[in-house]
Amino acid sequence: MKINKVQTSSFAINRKVEEGFLKAVKSGKGDRGYYPVGKFKVVRSHKVEKGKFFKSTTFDKTENYFYINMFNGDLYYSHRNSVWGGTPNLVKSDFLARIMDYNDSVLSVIGSLYEYGSIDYEALDHGVINELLREGLVRTYEPEVNQLFNFYRLYVEDDQEIYHKVFVKLNMLLPNFDNRRYNLDRFVDVVDFVDDEYRKESIRFSHERIIDVLGYLYGGAAMFTELVYLPFNLSVKTVEGKQTEVYTYPICAKGSHEAKREFATKEKLKPISFMTEMGVSGSVPVESSTITFADVADMTEVKQKIKEAIIYPLKNPQLAKQYQKKGGGSILLYGPPGCGKTYIARATVGECGVNFFNINTSDILSGGSEEAAKNIHDAFMRSSKASPSILFFDEVDALGARREDEEGSARMVVNQFLMEMDGVESLNENVLVLGGTNIPWALDPALRRAGRFTQQIFIPPPDYEARVELFKIHTRKRPIDENIKFDKLAELTEDYSSADIKAVCDDALEVPWTEALEGKPSRKSSMEDFLSVIHNRSSSITAWYRIAEKHIKESGEVDLYPDLAKYILTHAGGVEKAAVPPITFSDVADLSAAKEIINRVIIYPMKNPQLAKKFGQVVGGGVLLYGPPGCGKTYLARATAGECKANFFNVRITDVISAKAGESEMRLHSIFERAAQNAPAIVFFDEIDALAPRREDMVGDEKRLVNQFLTELDGFQKLEGVMVVGGTNAPWDVDPALRRSGRFTNQVYVSPPDAEVRKDIFRIHTKNKPVAADLNLEVLAEKTEGYSSADIKALCDHALEIPWVEALHGGKERPAGMDDFLRVVKNQANSLHPWFQLAVRQLKESGEADFYKEMLSDIEAALSKVDAVKERKDAQQSVLNERLTIVENRAALVAELKRKKDELTKYMEKLRHTYANRGIDEATFKMLVGQYQKELIEVEVKIDELEGDGTQK
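The structure assignment produced for this chain is given below.
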């Protein structure tokens, strides 16, 4: 079997040179990475004549190695011929990059000029030379001998006829073909690992194209032998107001000890595999290094299917033949976008080492239908000639769409693809066609016929275990803190695609690098970086589910793709995935009255459906949870679902409302449909007052949406096992029709937590957390009068962050103590007081104060408590301010008296000095000293009195 892989290595990094770069970028901008450099071997023949008298001609072979940057086309060679001389300096030439796009005839001329040095202009194609002259790749000149000849004829022989002889040569300076400076292996230390802090540039020039150009330039046979990563440091300097890029190559001289010291701690590079894309001239590596199934998180079942269908037959052709197992054929990979279809295809290539043709369908279709049909045929032919091979069509639905939906020329493309698929098995038993699609229902049904995509494999979004593994894979060998909790990250990224998780890792790993460029201290990526990125980045496939739901239903193929349909119908519309919450009533502090009503109306009938049926209790109906914001309505609804092991749908107003006419009603209907498909289920409508406000205050589309909601509520009672729960902070704003029998007949008041409940909430949110043993929950409960459940949770989170941040900045690790909690309580006011004031006014104005007496009474009581606390605090602050004023005034007076004391002391010293020098007589001296001493004593007595009073206070 043909294995199309090439070994990889890298030039060892010189840390001393790197240190100089890091110092340089502190005051400016910088970048560092690896260039993918191809090592190419070129062999050419040259004529050799032997013998003095009887000469014979033979052809010897000369070979050399050339290092070409596959990112930008630069050719590298050493500055020195000697191996010695300290740090090796590289010289680069962009000549190859400049001629890379020329056709063969132009390259042939360039090769001739390189071999012979110069050629008579008349012997060359003038059009080619003129084009090369315009690009500055060649130059013309007149030989000196020719100039002397013309001078002689003009001035000596008086002959006016001038002979012009013009020659052409390359406008570049490159060493001769056999110069040993080309082979960088002689000068630079090579290792088989890379530094993970250096990013890798992508490959832009295919190795086939570089082989062609080298062949023409040097007149020999070229081959690609190795991929070597060349480290580079880029610093940006500002000189006279202009920014200049400075490239350095931090490489080690041959035989350095530095690289050998690092070698033991690094993971060895893997070889690279190749792929070919339509629209790309030649092949480029699949990845920076070969990926295998070991790099694919989880997907055990998918891997096993691919091994049995593809890998085992390709690796063991004789055994496969014995059991009549073919390695060819066709497989369709389908699933949501970004979940790993292309990645699993590339890993399949890495597992078996075959040639990989990655067909970009947009490139195939870009030239029109006739060109597309030709491109499709060429792709199948090329894969057959390069077997064993895998031909991968990403977004295959673009080529194989339903023909009834296509017109004229577009059908030609579908028919051509179907015809090529019919011939897959006759092409070569070692050619496999893989198709990838997000919308399998859009494929022409003929593609599922025997001999085409008969085997179909669902690639699901990553589950919890897969997400943990993905975070580990994408941070492997990357600079991250040891305390990164992958299980926590996996929990926070439910419904994220594999691509989303990779993006999260990339963004989090970028944070410290950006800080370092700004001159901040160097550090590793922290858990805080990852949490911040996740907070700002939502799942990319949620919106796709919403669109896919509509199309898969219209296609009528839900039953053909049950695995994918289940995901779509569960997630569509942005509503949370239908799942049983991990919390129960034991996780909810108090609310015993609310729990009892919910037990009677929802949980008991759901847990005992037969008994409920016997006594005429139907599992269904609605419950409205109302109360101040942040007091646990959503949490109670989740716990209800967890208590009776029902799927939970959390529906927000943004999941329903659409600007498009009629779309909101359709979304609302689909939510009830999904609930029925996932029964037993609880659908929770948060902020239901925004979804179904009073109709007398509405017009047009808004009224239609409320009417639709009422219709759905009337109809869902027939859906056994489905319960609707609504949540609102303003029940007086909800349309009264919602309280009608059969709709939200059960209304449960979720009150603000009292002192005992607050104590329980503190206990719940500090459970299994690093808190001090002497944490006094009773004191905290007393000091948080008027706080909501959400306020207390936020307070706990902030208090627990204090020792965490201290530890991050090098402080001693410790648990969160009472002082931390009290500090947060002091700085964090409760969020309910402004709402209480607004709610009292609105409730009274609504005319429904009697209907919500309990709520109004609670709010007014809470307001009076908060006001009492505020008055007490204000009184305490007033006394404190008065005392502070007295203290401040006393302190100012003491300071003034001390200043006067110092002044008197200085006068007395000066007086003594004057008397000692006979400046005054003795009588005057004694008189003045007596006066000063009297004043000084008076000042000291006042100071003692004031400072004594301050101490007593």
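Interim note for the steering committee: Confidence is low (pLDDT under 50) at residues 277-281, 283-289. The chain is about 45% helix and 15% strand.
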